[in-house]
Amino acid sequence: MSSNNQVFPVIWNDRSPTDTLSGHVLLIDQTRLPNEYGVVEINRYDDMARAIETMIVRGAPAIGVAAAYGVFLGARDIQTSDRGEFLAQLEPIAQRLRATRPTAVNLFWAIDRMVKTAHQTLGPVDYLKQTLLDTAKAINADDVQTCHLIGDYGLQALPASPEKLRILTHCNAGALATAGYGTALGVVRSAWREGRLERVYADETRPRLQGAKLTAWECVHEGIPVTVITDNMAAHCMQRGMIDAVVVGADRIAANGDAANKIGTYSVALVAKAHNIPFFVAAPLSTIDFAIADGSQIPIEERDPGEVHTVGETLLCPVGAEFYNPAFDVTPAALINAIITEYGAIAPADLKDQLASKQAV
Ligand code: MRU
Questions:
Q1: pTM of this structure
Q2: Would you call 353 a catalytic residue per the annotation?
Q3: Which of 77, 184, 290, 335, CA to CA, is 20 to 30 A from 265?
């Protein structure tokens, strides 16, 4: 999962060199980080669906890659040689995986690509299965490549001064949230590599603490200087001149550039605007949903209230209180300086003109 200091949260592991279909998927268990590094072996599509629901694997591109392998794992277990029957049995598998999390559009993009590939591939069922595995592997490898391009374009989009930047990020849009390298943290990694980074400020990101647990873990793992702050400290840090740019990821971006990301991102964007600090969203083309005109139509996942009222074994709130736990919010395009994609840094208003034609699945 980790070679040359690089982190890959989802990998295909061939069980046998002669039987290429018999392998399994290995996931880094992100629920156990940073205290324990553990790997979960996934052999069946319903185990992959549960791993996505329980956030063993999380982050928009990473769950897309995981779901693509999930479609293959389900397809592998279909016991028929009849192509029509095989395609019919593939549909409930895809449906189960689609139902895992509603906001990140990469999940639906990857599943749709897998299903479409199955329908467009002619030949015996075993050949369809091999083609599905090859497609999942391609989605996986392409995402790593894409993140490196996002990192390099992001580096060009960052402010020219000061020479060494202090970058604030929210949640985890790192290697763990993608197939490797990261989107927002990919920009940070590229800046670090080129000597343009002084330090990362990582919002802790209540309620699940992806910033404190995962972003900080990735930075420490690689020797990138990181300061964790609680979410309510970001405005203070900006007011004190401690932040030069904000870079975050996204789970779904509407055609007008409104961007859904982890809850709390919107307030960071508002404060950045108030302090004239550039605010960037880093995301691949697969995160853009051109079928949705604006952010009001993005479905927002609501998660278990226990994530708000309890930390570990400790109840934080009095019994009798009520709780609300939206997992994402929408940052309006007007607050975003640029969306950094594998095709370059693009103003939100130009997204549709510049990228819609490139998104043929
Ligand atoms: O609920 P999560 O942890 O899956 O949410 C992840 C985020 O909001 C990330 O910031 C986003 O997916 C971008 S990942 C490159």
A1: 0.97
A2: no
A3: 290
DSSP 44-112: SHHHHHHHHHTTSS-SHHHHHHHHHHHHHHHHHT-----HHHHHHHHHHHHHHHHTS-SS-HHHHHHHH
Catalytic site residue from 143, 203, 244, 251:
251
The Å distance, Cα 17 to ligand 1 centre, comes to 35
Are residues 131 and 219 both part of a single domain?
A: no
Using a 6 Å CB cutoff, which residues line ligand 1? Answer: 58-61, 104, 171, 173, 177-178, 183, 210, 249-251, 261-262, 327
Q: Say whether both 134 and 228 belong to one domain.
A: no
Per DSSP (E only), the strands in 283-336 are 288-289, 310-311, 314-315, 328-331
User: What's the CATH number where 320 sits?
Assistant: 3.40.50.10470
Contact 51, 40 (CB under 8 A): yes
C-alpha 193/C-alpha 200 separation (Å) is 13
Give yes or no: residues 208 and 326 share one domain. Answer: yes
Give distance in angstroms: CA of 261 to centre of ligand 1. 6
Domain interval for residue 40: 2-146
Give the tens place of pLDDT for each residue, 276-318. 999 999 999 999 999 999 999 999 999 999 999 999 899 999 9
Q: What is the pLDDT of residues 138-173, one digit of tens each?
A: 999 999 999 999 999 999 999 999 999 999 999 999
The residue behind tokens 């030069």 is: 244
Q: Are residues 104 and 10 in the same domain?
A: yes
